[in-house]
């Protein structure tokens, strides 16, 4: 199962780390406790929109940019989950074909005709 809070936390942590900032610096700037920010980054706590706004302001990142990155991560996670859940593609097995020679149909000569079909698909009645 994909957890949005975990993806959001991962993106927030990457944003912070790209800037070379510590949890302490961002938590102080956003006026959020260090422990709570850490839990948000680890995906253990759901961040309210107000909290996200404060963290985005502290990181000088637009919330739309943050959400776009989260959306991209979510798309990739969904694709990966979908691929993992799919059954492996099976190669169709060609049925064994049997040959049947027909020299007449309803007593009328046809010449020689050979029909190749799966044995279970053709009823052959000898006369």
What does this structure look like?
The chain has 127 residues and is α+β, with helices and mostly antiparallel strands. The chain is built from 5 helices and 2 strands. The protein has helices at residues 4-18, 23-30, 34-41, 49-59, 63-85, and strands spanning 97-105, 108-118. It has a two-stranded antiparallel sheet. Helix 2 (23-30) packs across helix 4 (49-59). The relative contact order is 0.12. The model has no long low-confidence stretch (mean pLDDT 81).
Itemize the secondary structure elements and their pairings:
Blueprint: H1 4-18, H2 23-30, H3 34-41, H4 49-59, H5 63-85, E1 97-105, E2 108-118
Antiparallel strand pairs: 1-2
């Amino acid at each position: 199962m994909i957890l949005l809070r975990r993806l959001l936390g991962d993106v927030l942590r990457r944003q912070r780390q790209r800037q070379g900032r510590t949890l302490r610096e961002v938590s102080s700037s956003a006026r959020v406790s260090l422990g709570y920010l850490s839990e948000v980054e680890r995906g253990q706590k759901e961040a309210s929109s107000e909290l996200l706004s404060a963290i985005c302001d502290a990181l000088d990142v637009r919330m739309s940019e943050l959400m776009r990155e989260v959306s991209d991560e979510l798309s990739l996670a969904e694709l990966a989950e979908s691929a993992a859940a799919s059954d492996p593609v099976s190669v169709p097995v060609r049925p064994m074909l049997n040959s049947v020679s027909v020299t007449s149909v309803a007593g009328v000569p046809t010449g020689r005709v050979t029909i190749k079909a799966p044995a279970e698909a053709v009823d052959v009645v000898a006369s």
